[in-house]
Amino acid sequence: MEMFYQQMESKGKMFTVLTILLLTSRNSGCGIGASAGTRIADLPRNADGDVALANFIFGDSLVDVGNNNYLPLSLATAKNLPNGIDFPQRNGRTPTGRFSNGRTIPDILVLKVGSKHFPPPYLSPTAHGSAILGGVNYASGGGGILNNTGRIFVQRISMDVQISYFERTLEELRELLGPTKTSEMVTSAIFSVTMGSNDFLDNYLSPVPDTLDPILLPPPEFIRLLITTFESQLTRLYDNGARKLIIVNLPAIGCIPYQRSLQVGRHGICSARANKLASEFNVPLKEMLDRLNRQLTGATFLYADAYSIMLDIVNNYENYGLENADTACCGAFGSKRGIIPCRSFLEVCKDRSKFFFWDPYHPSEAGYQIIAAEFFDGNRYISPMNVRQLIEL
């Protein structure tokens, strides 16, 4: 909390600004949270014209927007160009901390709702006061469901710690808005969780084990450990007020350029073992979310099937307007440029809009745009409803 008080403006000034905003919202029929059954086009907007809908984002490098930049010892950062080369900015091209050339799925979903400002990374010095009224991003490259996942990166933020940070955000929001308004805001907010890939790629399947214990477990027991831990974490979010949650399953991690490049002598095919583990994790994940939907009153958990849509894109990339879905746009070595991650000295593919993968691990903005569109308005790869329908509940 000491950092919080150092970063905030004086209490009197901040409360005056927020009071004016809240009174303006109340008088115009607009609140901090949207009322149930409101169409997106009719959602209340704040003074900047943004939809008054908060987004709280948890996860790994697929959705990290710069938290790891504030971890001085972290080896999992995207602080260098060409990362962020296509991210729209006022002051030229500057890496944002995103592991991509441009926007990621949470960014795209925020834009689809009608907001212009993305939730800031929690560790940013500016992520306080009015800056957090639209939500916060807690995601961290290298983070996992298990606390010991990602040790190879030295510093990263696990799911448990991300939730603890969210609880600190709640304390700050209660100071800013009061308990009632904070509760309304959180109840209508969208929570997205993209977590689990590192528990396999940088733990169970890692050539440099993070810990001996999970490695010695057979796959069913390791997956059971992950699911049990993840369920307690999602329940903890619910206990803190989350009611609208999007849970992204494990993608087809065997088809990322890194795993393909490890298939020496096999022409860069997908790793069957990695995909099998991801698929075996996703089955009990879906069952767990179905159970939480039945047991947790007032909650809606969406199952976003990144695995299936990624496989479809990889196998039918031309149908999506792409020219390549197996090679890193920015990477080096291996059959799919998947061994060395994106660095400033590496050559970048000429047309990034035609590549599904940006680097050995992460999709490009073009890839994210395809997936986000399916999650937002589609019905093949997300259930029991899509993101638009979740927002309008």
TrEMBL record:
Domain of life: Eukaryota
CDD domains: SGNH_plant_lipase_like
Pfam families in the cross-refs: Lipase_GDSL
This protein's UniProt keywords: Hydrolase, Signal
GO MF term list: hydrolase activity, acting on ester bonds
UniProt xrefs under InterPro entries: GDSL (IPR001087), GDSL_Est/Lipase (IPR051058), SGNH_hydro_sf (IPR036514), SGNH_plant_lipase-like (IPR035669)
Signal peptide: 1-29
Family: Belongs to the 'GDSL' lipolytic enzyme family.
Name of the molecule in the record: GDSL esterase/lipase
Organism per entry: Ceratopteris richardii (Triangle waterfern)
